Automatic annotation (TrEMBL):
Domain FAD-binding: 5-353
UniProt name for this protein: FAD-binding domain-containing protein
Lineage: Eukaryota, Fungi, Dikarya, Ascomycota, Pezizomycotina
Keywords linked to the UniProt accession: FAD, Flavoprotein, Oxidoreductase
Phenol hydroxylase-like C-terminal dimerisation domain sequence ranges: 392-558
Family (UniProt): Belongs to the PheA/TfdB FAD monooxygenase family.
Length: 560
C-alpha cells in the first residue's frame, strides 16, 4: 500500500531541508527521501551569503551559525611581480550597509544539521528516510484538486510507493526525478579544470586567514579560510586536463608554484577534488503544477562564487511557504506558478553571472582582454551585491505588485526584492532591534506601517483610518477561532520621540489580544528613535520613507 503524505521531498540537501522547515512550522505533513545512508558528513559547499544568514535569522536559528562560522570581512588581492607575487589591494568582502548580517563560512553538513535540528525542535522529529533511492515519479494525467503524484523508490532493497499532493525534486545534479519527467539540462562545459582542497597548511604567506585571490605566472588560486583556527580551502586553476587524471600531488605542486616566493607545507588534507567548469539550466522547473525542481536538480555551475548552496536553499525558502499556504487553504494554487517565474529567472541570472565570474578568474581570458589587477578588483567589488545574495528582484506577478508611485514612498525599498533591515527601538521595552527580526518566517504576511510622528494630530488621525481598514482586511482573511494575527500581522514603525508616546495612542490592530488569556501582544510596535546603547538607527532615512509615511506589504519570505 502506498504511503500518503502532503509533500514528498526527494533529497535531503539545503533546498529540501529549507522547504521542510517551512512545512513543519506550518503543520504540513511531509517526508524526505534521501539516498545516502545517513546525514551529510562532509559537504562541499561552505560559503554562506548574507542573504542566507538573514534567512536563518528569520527561522530564529542564526545565532549558532554566526557563533560557529568563520566571518569573511576582508579580501586581499595578489598579483604577479617578477617570478613571485605581491599584494595589490584590500577591500571589504561585503559592501558596507548592504546587510546587517555578515558573509560567513561553515561546512554544508553543519548547515544542514542546523536545519534538521530546527525541524526536530518544531515537530519532535525529522521525517527523513535515509537509504531510499527514488526510481520514478508519475503525476495523474488529469490534474485537479484530488490529483496525486506517485513516487516509486527502493529502500534497503525493498520497493516502496508514495503518494503525495506535491513533490519537490531536491535530489541534485543527477536528479532521478528530473530524468523521470524527461526534463533536460541545457548548457555546456569547458575544458578548464580547477582543483579544490580543504587542508591545514603551514605557511609564511601573510594572508592565509583572509579570503585572498592570487594571480601569479603559475596560475590562479583563491583562499577561503574555514571555521576553526587553521583549516583553509584552496581553489586552484589547473588549466586544460582530464579530471580523471588529476591527483592530489598535482594540486599541491601547482599551489606551491603559485605561492612562490612564499612556502607552503600541506600538514593534512581533509578533502580534495577536481572538476570541469560547466553551467546548465533545466528547460522546465515544474510539471503539472505538482512537481517542482529545486537546487542542483535545475541549475548547476562552478563553485567559486559561493552561490550553489545559497541559491538552492533560497529555492526551498521560496517554494516552502507557498506550498504551506496552498495546503492550508490560505491561498490559491495559482501562487505556485510564481515559484517557476521567480526562481527560473533567478537561476538563469546565476548561470550568466557564473559564466562572467568564471572568465574573470581565467588567466587566458584576462591576458586576451588586457584585464589588469585593478580591473579585476573593480569587477570583483562590483559583483559583490550579487555574491552577497542581494541582487535578486522578482518581477510583477500575483505576489509582486509594483506601481509607478510605490517606490517614491519608500525609495530605499525596491518592490520585488527582499525587505532590507534597519535598527528601530521596540516601544514596549526600549530594546533596539533589527526590524526584519520582527518579520519571522512563520507563514504570516506582514503589513508594515510607517506612520510618521504620531504626536502630530493629522498623523494620528490618518493612522486611525489606516488601522480601521487594516483590521477589516485581517478579519476577512483570518479563519474563525484562530489568533487575530495568525495570517496577517500589523507592524507599526513610528517617527516620534519614544518617551513622549503613550500606549493608549497605539491603534489596537497593532497590539491584538492573543493567547489563552487574551493578553495584548506588544512586540510589533517600534519607534525610529535613539536607543540607550546602540545609537539611532535612522530607519526612515535608510528606507527613504516619504514624509507622508507609507505602508509596505511584506511576504512570508520577507520579499516586498
Amino acid at each position: 500500500m502506498a504511503e500518503q503524505v502532503d509533500v514528498l521531498i526527494c533529497g535531503c540537501g539545503s533546498a529540501g531541508l529549507c522547504a521542510a522547515v517551512w512545512l513543519s512550522r506550518c503543520g504540513i505533513s511531509y517526508k524526505i527521501l534521501e539516498r545516502r545512508d545517513g546525514p551529510l558528513e562532509n559537504g562541499q559547499a561552505d560559503g554562506v551569503q548574507c542573504r542566507t544568514v538573514e534567512i536563518f535569522e528569520s527561522f530564529g536559528i542564526a545565532e549558532d551559525l554566526l557563533k560557529e562560522a568563520y566571518h569573511v570581512l576582508e579580501v586581499a588581492f595578489w598579483a604577479a611581480e617578477g617570478e613571485g607575487i605581491k599584494r595589490t589591494h584590500y577591500t571589504a568582502d561585503t559592501e558596507p550597509g548592504l546587510s546587517h548580517q555578515p558573509h560567513v563560512i561553515l561546512n554544508q553538513a553543519r548547515i544542514n544539521g542546523m536545519l534538521i535540528e530546527e525541524i526536530q525542535r518544531v515537530s519532535g522529529s525529522a521525517a527523513i528516510e535515509y537509504g531510499c533511492d527514488v526510481q520514478s515519479v508519475e503525476v495523474d494525467d488529469i490534474v485537479n484538486e484530488s490529483s496525486r503524484v506517485t513516487t516509486r523508490a527502493v529502500s534497503n532493497g525493498q520497493q516502496k510507493v508514495f503518494q503525495s499532493k506535491y513533490v519537490l525534486a531536491c535530489d541534485g545534479a543527477h536528479s532521478a526525478v528530473r530524468k523521470s519527467l524527461g526534463i533536460a539540462m541545457v548548457g555546456d562545459s569547458t575544458n578548464a579544470i580547477w582543483g579544490v582542497m580543504d587542508l591545514h597548511a603551514r605557511t609564511d604567506f601573510p594572508d592565509i586567514r583572509k579570503k585572498a585571490i592570487i594571480h601569479s605566472r603559475a596560475g590562479n588560486l583563491m583562499i577561503i579560510p574555514r571555521e576553526g583556527d587553521s583549516m583553509v580551502r584552496f581553489y586552484i586553476e589547473l588549466g586544460d586536463a582530464a579530471v580523471k587524471d588529476i591527483t592530489l600531488a598535482d594540486l599541491q605542486e601547482r599551489a606551491r608554484r603559485i605561492f612562490h616566493p612564499y612556502s607552503v607545507e600541506f600538514m593534512k588534507t581533509v578533502w580534495w577534488s577536481a572538476y570541469s567548469i560547466g553551467q546548465r539550466l533545466a528547460d522546465n522547473f515544474a510539471k503539472a503544477g505538482r512537481i517542482f525542481l529545486t537546487g542542483d536538480a535545475c541549475h548547476t555551475h562552478s563553485p567559486k562564487a559561493g552561490q550553489g548552496m545559497n541559491v538552492s536553499l533560497q529555492d526551498g525558502y521560496n517554494i516552502g511557504w507557498k506550498l504551506a499556504s496552498v495546503l492550508r487553504r490560505q491561498s490559491s494554487a495559482c501562487i505556485l506558478d510564481t515559484y517557476v517565474s521567480e526562481r527560473q529567472k533567478t537561476a538563469a541570472q546565476l548561470i550568466e553571472f557564473d559564466r562572467f565570474f568564471t572568465k574573470l578568474f581565467s588567466s587566458s581570458y584576462r591576458q586576451e582582454n588586457g584585464i589588469s589587477s585593478q580591473d579585476f578588483k573593480d569587477q570583483f567589488v562590483k559583483a559583490g551585491r550579487y555574491t552577497a545574495g542581494q541582487g535578486v528582484r522578482y518581477e510583477k506577478s500575483l505576489l509582486v505588485s509594483p506601481s509607478p508611485t510605490d517606490e517614491g514612498l519608500s525609495q530605499g525599498v525596491i518592490v520585488g526584492m527582499r525587505f532590507p533591515s534597519a535598527q528601530v527601538v521596540r516601544f514596549c521595552d526600549a530594546r533596539p532591534i533589527q526590524l526584519v527580526a520582527a518579520l519571522s518566517a512563520d507563514s504570516r504576511w506582514h503589513v508594515v506601517v510607517f506612520s510618521g510622528d504620531i504626536l502630530q494630530q493629522t498623523v494620528a488621525a490618518k493612522l486611525f483610518k489606516v488601522a480601521v481598514e487594516l483590521q477589516e482586511i485581517i478579519n476577512t482573511f483570518t479563519p474563525s477561532g484562530q489568533e487575530p494575527n495568525s495570517v496577517i500581522q500589523g507592524v507599526l514603525v513610528l517617527a516620534s520621540k519614544r518617551t513622549k508616546v503613550e500606549q493608549n495612542m497605539i491603534p489596537d490592530v497593532f497590539t491584538p489580544l492573543t493567547g489563552k488569556w487574551k493578553i495584548k501582544h506588544l512586540q510589533k510596535v517600534f519607534v525610529d528613535d535613539e536607543s540607550y546603547n546602540s545609537g539611532h538607527g535612522k530607519a526612515y532615512q535608510a528606507y527613504g520613507i516619504h514624509p507622508e509615511g507609507c505602508l509596505i506589504v511584506v511576504r512570508p519570505d520577507q520579499c516586498k
